[in-house]
Amino acid sequence: MPGNNTHKVVYLDNNATTMVDPKVFEAMKPYFCELYGNPSSMHYFGGQVHKAVDKAREQVKDFLGATDAKEIIFTASGSEGDNMAIRGVLEANKSKKHIITTKIEHPAVLNVYKYLEKQGYEVTYLDVDSQGNLDLNQLNNSITNDTALVSIMYANNETGVILPVEKAAKIVKQKNPKIKFHVDAVQAAGKIPIDVKNTDIDLLTIAGHKIHAPKGIGALYVKTGTLLPAFVIGGHQERGKRAGTENVPYIVGLGLACEIAKNSLNYEMTEVKRLRDKLEQGILERVYNAKVNGSTSNRVPNTTNIGFQYIEGELILLHLSDLGICASSGSACTSGSLEPSHVLKSMGVPFESLHGSIRFSLSRFTTEEEIDYVLDVLPDVIKKLNHISPYQRELKELEQKHK
Amino acid sequence: MWDYTDKVMDHYKNPRNVGEIENPSAIGEAGSLVCGDALKLYLKVDEKGVITDAKFQTFGCGSAVASSSVLTEMIKGMTIEEASKITNQQIADALGGLPPQKMHCSVMGHEALESAIANYKGEDAALHCDEKIICQCYHVTENVIREAIEQNNLTDLEDVMNYTKAGGACGQCHVAIQKIIDELKNKKEKVDIKNMSVTQLVLKINNVIEKYISNELRKDGGDIELIDVKDNKVYVSLKGMCKSCKFSSNTLKNFVEASLKEHISPDIEVVEV
């Protein structure tokens, strides 16, 4: 924080993970040492825990706009939900060998397709334009008689750009109602309203830790009538689709987190958005070599992805981190892999921005004071790093243009 | 988060010798915008060939800036000859080490230094353009890969990726990189025995016997002893069960000699005493 940058953390990496809401944490606590019964037990001690799980399932149902609480399966993570949906649909429909998805999906999904390709599946990866938007005509033209599944993310984790999943689902079902439609909504949940009722979406994944519940809990919406084999074979839990004694405290936490997220949507879309816009505008005004990646009109309200031209992302993150500011980059040197962000590459972001792109993602816990602090210190960091860059001539030109 | 040493952190936070030198004696360049890191090195060299000033500009991550920064400190005061002997490992060592995935930053520093020295000597740096590019994504040439393997004793694909970035993106060149690794490995192992001292050769033979031969023979209750080495002739004595085995001459030719030929030199001949 201003004047004291060695201790306080300004956390602008909420698309990576979020703080557990203290109210959520409080609600979970009794289910460790007091209400520790097994929801499947016949006795009252277990029965009251069963009720807590039921309540959480209702809360998730309401949050997603599902019709029936039976449509909610608790999982351990977003990745698990994605795996369960994608591999389950294919297992239930073994004669079809074609899948459609996008080039900008999360690795939790993309790597499943890579695996499936080795198993003999054919995968169509839909393009995005420079704004990160999808071409629904391309989707329409990609559907074949052999298509079993279409899986499209609701909002992109790196840019925050929202994809038209409801329209896409409609197109798919009009062409062939038997094709299943899955949505990875991990980055959309809690940021924009989700209402699966009256849509053609069959399956939808969320993860708790992106909406102020803890890590290690998630949920998969499975529309009634969607055939899905057991993902974990064993007991009857989660309607036999995912055996194993329920992770009760975390399920309770996810339930409350969903309820709070639903009630906070308005705040997200007004106040969080205002702070995000203030941060983005402030950076664009103060830093001449800054450029927003992706559509600014069609985004979740908490995310901005800014390319700092001719300087490298990890170096920016390291300097910001020294000032207590947490942000992220999908760029080459931060993730351990050497490959720059596949999302920004698919959008055709030029090399001078690609390696220096930083994602700032806010939450309802982000304060105005924090944004002011970032705007106060970030321009000097960039100025210092610009000075180190070998592309002085190019930077000069950008500076002239900015004036 | 990378596990950077204090020295790396010090150098990226407070990089030394940033900027350009007016009328430099030499400029060296390595990397490019496409690769995600690029380095420009400026040298001022006096009439005695001593580097009196060095400055850099770097586009890259924390360890790239730190490698560039420490390099300028290392070479100041050196003669061009001395500087030309610096290896990428020395750059990494000067920083107290780099994470394996970041070794390519030290390689880039070394490349820029080589390029600056070539520029100083009036050699045409553009010569490098004719080189065969192995990794199209990051424009890594065959020579860069070979040099990194030889200087750092790299043995697998992942090492090469960490040191040169080659193969770190689409992965199409993995087969080509593996070929170079294998080729250099074979070359390294199969040396001309005529150029070896007797001691070297004996050590090598013993090594191969220990590693590849003895264990196999012991499984059958036998063993082998090295008696003498003269030119290309290796004199051995078979022990234990091998001694009385009727297939011993077969073992000697098809296993012992074949192993020594494979791992040391095809010229080797094994004689039983």
Q: What is the number of strand segments of chain A?
A: 12
Number of DSSP helical runs of chain B:
11
Helical content of chain A (DSSP H or I, runs of 4+): 40-55%
Overall residue-averaged pLDDT value of chain B: 87
Count of alpha/pi helices of chain A: 13
- Tell me the CATH superfamily of the largest domain in chain A: Type I PLP-dependent aspartate aminotransferase-like (Major domain)
Could you describe the 3D structure shown?
The complex is a heterodimer of chains A (403) and B (273). Chain A has helices at residues 22-28, 30-33, 44-64, 78-92, 107-118, 136-142, 165-175, 248-286, 313-322, 342-346, 351-354, 368-388, 392-402; strands spanning 10-11, 72-75, 98-102, 122-126, 147-153, 180-184, 203-207, 218-222, 290-292, 303-308, 325-326, 357-361. In chain A, helix 8 packs across helix 12 (368-388) and helix 9 crosses helix 12 (368-388). Chain A folds into 2 domains: 10-19 and 266-402, Alpha-Beta Complex (Aspartate Aminotransferase, domain 1), CATH 3.90.1150; 22-261, Aspartate Aminotransferase, domain 2. Helix content of chain A is 41%, strand content 13%. Chain A is globular, with a radius of gyration of 22 Å. Chain A is of the alpha/beta class. The model of chain A is unreliable at 1-5 and 332-336 (pLDDT under 50). Chain B folds into 3 domains: 1-125, Alpha-Beta Complex (Sufe protein. Chain: A); 131-194, Arc Repressor Mutant, subunit A (Orthogonal Bundle); 198-272, Fe-S cluster assembly (FSCA) (GMP Synthetase, Chain A, domain 3), CATH 3.30.300. Helix content of chain B is 47%, strand content 19%. Chain B has helices at 6-13, 62-75, 80-83, 88-94, 103-120, 142-152, 157-164, 174-189, 198-219, 241-244, 248-263; strands at residues 26-32, 37-45, 51-59, 133-135, 140-141, 222-230, 233-240, 269-272. A 3-stranded antiparallel beta sheet of chain B has the order 1-2-3. In chain B, strands 6-7-8 form a 3-stranded mixed beta sheet. In chain B, strand 2 and strand 3 form a beta hairpin. In chain B, helix 2 (62-75) packs across helix 5 (103-120). At the A-B interface, helix 9 and helix 11 of A face strand 2, strand 3 and helix 2 of B.
